[in-house]
## 1
Amino acid sequence: MSVTHVDTTPPSPVIEITGLRKRYRSIRRPGTTALDGLDMVVHRGQIHGFLGPNGSGKTTTLRILLGLAAADHGRMRVFGRPVPQCLPELSDRIGAVVESPRFFGSFTARLTLSLLAGTIGLPDVRVEEVLTAVGLRDRADEPVKGYSLGMRQRLAVASALLKDPDLLILDEPTNGMDPAGIREMREMMRGLAADGMTLLVSSHLLSEVEQLCDTMTIVSRGRRVTHGRVADIVAAHTSDSVTVTLADAAEGARAAEVLRRAGLAISGRAERVEVSGAESPAAVTRLLSDKGIHLSGLTRQAADLETVFLRLTGTAPVDGRYPQIDHSLLPPAARSTPDERELTVTVSEGAES
Ligand SMILES: Nc1ncnc2c1ncn2[C@@H]1O[C@H](COP(=O)(O)OP(=O)(O)OP(=O)(O)O)[C@@H](O)[C@H]1O
Ligand SMILES: [Mg+2]
């Protein structure tokens, strides 16, 4: 009799970070704790959002993961292998764009990618594939210096895609883009995930994470404050309160009295009464109809990610967005050098013409 062995071990996560700590030290000023025991898990095939207010440690985490900065403590695994130790053997499987990309301004996108492809032994047909993937093919023969920020960002993503990685790490990929550019970038990322790629995407745009990501990690002050499926997190924070609308203010007052006597918390005024603590919206309707009070409307207040974020991090977004810190306004010790902040897969550092 043959025995079939079924391996029930779950596949290891693509990224696993445990207890990551990083403190930037300075001779003249007190140091900055950028990461204070951060945990993160990203599974295969997910688009995972990495969401946090300014200075919460997103870029630091990504740089450490890619071996561009050293951690003080913590454990990291990518595709089950310890990093940074195993990064050389994993480099073909990881593509990344961290911070602002820079390119030779007088080179075209096609030439830029062709030179990069040549250095890693890839044929020019791959250049055409990535140009198509990021939607730059029509403008590929223009010098990069005439490119918008969004086009440069797409060129950076194209360069990260050349080696057809299994994992793509993007730090604020839609930063500075207009709504059309954001939509195109989102569609491109979705397409990559549909082809089986795992994506880790940091963002300030709450709506972006809500629209794009399956799962997310929310970070505040260098620590994870929540993680899981985006829809589950939003649902878990959806408030139990409902707003009932009555025919007029007098009916509103009657309804408020009935609901208060039933032990529910009431706020609002006139014909709009906010009720919390009810078992369900139907229970509110029933209580009122039993007293002959008829509703003209009932709405449940759904939490959006913005509300969730505010509750968890105590940081208020402005117009759904966390404003970027202008690093030039920071004291020198809190600023990183351009070389440190603008690491990416580029042909040139500071050679823009
Ligand atoms: N090279 C550096 N030297 C000193 N402090 C730094 C350096 N890089 C980052 N920091 C500090 O570490 C903390 C985390 O910064 P980090 O850039 O990782 O945050 P972030 O979440 O990416 O922020 P942002 O949303 O502004 O991009 C901040 O307080 C920042 O000022
Ligand atoms: Mg950052």
## 2
Amino acid sequence: MRGTGRRDTQPELRLRSALHRRGLRFLVDAVAEGANKRRRVDVLLRGARIAVFVDGCFWHACPEHGHLPMTNQQWWRRKLEGVVRRDRDTDLELAAAGWLVIRVWEHQDLDRAAGEIARLVRQRRGARRPRSARPH
Ligand SMILES: [Zn+2]
């Protein structure tokens, strides 16, 4: 339970299919090895050790589209600040466990984001490959 809205949001599904089209394999809503088990990752590329989150503009307080609802503003402010703090905390924890964290805003061009992720996957796989590529 992520506490930040629905699972399988439209932007998330769109990013996932864009990654699929690029031939990438990944886990969905998964636990990153070495990190907090309660903080699930939207899209996990295990081989390259990349953790991708698709952040909704409202819940994650996007600088361009984030806003406070008209009613209960104090409560919402605290709530959304809590989500953002938790996001940064999750980022640090994943980085400490050796994961590259990529956060994509739902308002971004998701196809372009998928292209960038594919590039990083190739890069990180390449960096890890030399040793195992040698014949035994
Ligand atoms: Zn936004």
